[in-house]
Design goal:
Elements (H helix, E strand, L loop, with lengths): L2 H22 L4 H21 L3 E2 L8 E2 L6 H16 L2 H18 L2 H11 L6 H11 L6 H16 L4 H14 L9 H13 L4 H6 L9 H29 L6 E2 L6 E2 L2 E7 L2 E9 L8 H26 L17 H4 L1 H20 L7 H12 L1 H20 L1 H15 L5 H14 L6 H18 L4 H13 L10 H9 L8 H29 L14
Antiparallel strand pairs: 1-2, 3-4, 5-6
Length: 544
């Protein structure tokens, strides 16, 4: 190693250490929102004592700020504690969708689909296939960070390409493109629920803006997923793999103690929120599918298609109950209100069919077991939702959200900062905060409470602000040490490169972060300037 290389490595390590030190000072999400709740409580009380009012667009009378630590506030809080929690909008949709995706995941359907897609790709197309699978892998939630990278490495090695390029590409695609997908996911339901929770803070927004649903960003997501998959494939093929080869990284696993090549792998164990690596001689996971798995996957996909055909026919019937009173589907209809049901049917039935044929599901009695396992996986969210619900409820009830929105919007207008430049500033802010707040639900809860009403007053649809948030929420999360799955990736990488550290992972991720961020912003610009719909019945600007 040359002196220049060492110097650069030291600079990178110092930068990473600085980021990690600052990030580690942030409380965990539950504690963070508890603190924000208390701050909001104190500030709202002070503003209430100061008789602060705000003139909200759409309201004839000024809105007086209400404080938590007043008689009215304490009565409100003590009588609505449970309602604030159970009424937290994302709980209704996320929990339901996760039950279905839990069946598809626990039966092995999703993993089999990924293995088939990656393992069957030709050598030249493999980087782009890994990019696509990584981007759409968010349907598996955080499992994508653990499942996709090693499978991509195996597929690369089997094709005679460098496994580390597949490993890094699979992780980067899954992380940097986490907020988009060609399929509706539980994340869409989660974001939509949080968005809808803050819309009522401004009556003009509530009266004229389009309510968000899991398909509000669907067209935007499809375009972003396809384009970003191509970007990921190009970066893997033209940047990452050549750099890995020039660095002399081994194509075979290396014993970290002896430096000798080895064929056995280190088994990864995830226990709660802690990632540990256990040295065991477990056989490698096969990238290909067994004949029985192929048969199961075929019938599951056939089932998936048949469900789609049946739902389409039922929807297109002249007197379909899914049409609105005018006989249409837009802007509102029972069809759009049934998105959660449709997603549930697709994944639960297809996952069950796969499991029955593959032998991973013995009978219907296994369904509640898989659903229970899915709910167990989201226990941390269920706990976090308690304080998120209290925070959102207080923010809305006190009127602080409306005051910030009106004041902020007026300030932006007076400064002449409107249009797409202000959206760019919002995305940059999200990207910076994403280095420290990894939880997408936590950050969107925080950002939506302020920026959905603020930008709504400026005329932007809440779903458009949600789409802009997706850009800033994903791209930078693969380059921060605060992402717990960075430790998982590091452990996998050390099997080929024992001397690798977090600085190594950071350097290997940057080639993905920059193009993903730039291209994603460009896609948003195209939708904005051409006035394209983001999803069914959802535009860019609020139309009165």
């Amino acid at each position: 190693m040359t002196a220049t290389t060492t110097k650069r490595s030291n600079v990178g390590d110092r930068l990473l250490t600085g980021i990690e030190r600052v990030g580690n000072k942030l409380p965990e999400p539950f504690a963070l929102f508890t603190i924000l709740f208390l701050i909001t409580a104190v500030v709202s009380t002070a503003m209430a004592w100061g008789n602060v009012v705000v003139h909200v667009p759409g309201k004839d009378e000024p809105l007086a700020i209400k404080g938590l630590f007043t008689g009215e506030g304490l009565a409100w809080f003590t009588t609505t504690l449970g309602e604030n929690y159970i009424g937290f909008p994302p709980l209704v949709t996320v929990a339901t969708i996760l039950l279905a995706i839990g069946i598809a995941e626990k039966s092995g359907f999703l993993a089999a689909a990924i293995r088939f897609t990656i393992g069957g790709a030709p050598r030249w197309l493999l980087p782009y296939t890994v990019g696509f699978v990584g981007v759409v892998g968010s349907i598996m939630a955080d499992s994508a960070f653990v499942v996709i990278p090693p499978l991509a490495a195996l597929a690369f090695k089997a094709a005679g390409r460098h496994p580390v390029a597949g490993l890094l590409g699979g992780f980067a695609s899954a992380g940097a493109g986490y907020s988009t997908n060609i399929f509706p996911t539980s994340l869409d339901a989660l974001f939509a629920g949080i968005t809808n929770a803050v819309i009522p803070t401004v009556p003009a927004l509530a009266n004229h803006a389009t309510e968000a649903n899991p398909l509000s960003n669907y067209y935007f997501n499809i375009v972003a997923a396809v384009v970003l998959s191509c970007v990921a494939g190009f970066v893997i093929d033209k940047v990452v793999e050549p750099r890995v080869m020039r660095a002399g990284v081994s194509k075979d696993e290396v014993n970290p103690e002896t430096g000798q090549l080895m064929t056995d792998t280190l088994a990864m164990r995830i226990v709660g929120d802690e990632q540990t690596v256990a040295e065991s001689r477990e056989p490698q996971v096969e990238a290909g599918l067994s004949p029985r798995e192929k048969k199961a996957l075929l019938w599951a996909c056939v089932t998936f298609v048949l469900i789609g055909v049946a739902l389409t026919v039922f929807t297109l019937l002249p007197n379909s109950p899914w049409r609105n009173e005018d006989g249409n589907f837009l802007p509102k209809s029972p069809l759009l209100a049934s998105i959660v049901f449709i997603i549930f049917v697709f994944f639960s039935v297809s996952g069950y069919v796969y499991g029955r044929i593959a032998g991973t599901v013995r009978g219907f009695k296994d369904v509640p077991v898989m659903m229970g396992a899915a709910l167990k996986d989201m226990t941390s969210f269920l706990v976090l939702a308690f304080i998120l619900g209290q925070f959102i409820a207080l923010f809305n009830w006190s009127g602080i959200g409306s005051w910030i929105a009106v004041t902020g919007a007026s300030g932006l207008e007076n400064a002449g900062v409107t249009g797409f430049p202000v959206i760019i500033g919002f995305i940059i802010l999200c990207s910076i905060l994403n280095l420290f707040i990894i939880s997408g639900s936590s950050m969107w809860t925080l950002m939506a409470a302020v920026f959905v009403p603020m930008f709504g007053i400026l005329g932007f649809e809440p779903a458009f602000i949600q789409a802009a948030f997706r850009v800033g929420d994903s791209a930078t999360q693969v380059m921060t040490p605060l992402n717990p799955y960075m430790v998982v990736l590091l452990a996998m990488l050390r099997k080929y490169e024992p001397s690798a550290g977090l600085g190594t992972v950071m350097a290997r991720m940057i080639p993905f972060v920059v193009p993903f961020w730039v291209v994603w912003v460009l896609i948003l610009m195209v939708f904005y300037f051409l006035g394209l719909p983001l999803g069914p019945g959802v535009g860019i600007m609020i139309t009165h």
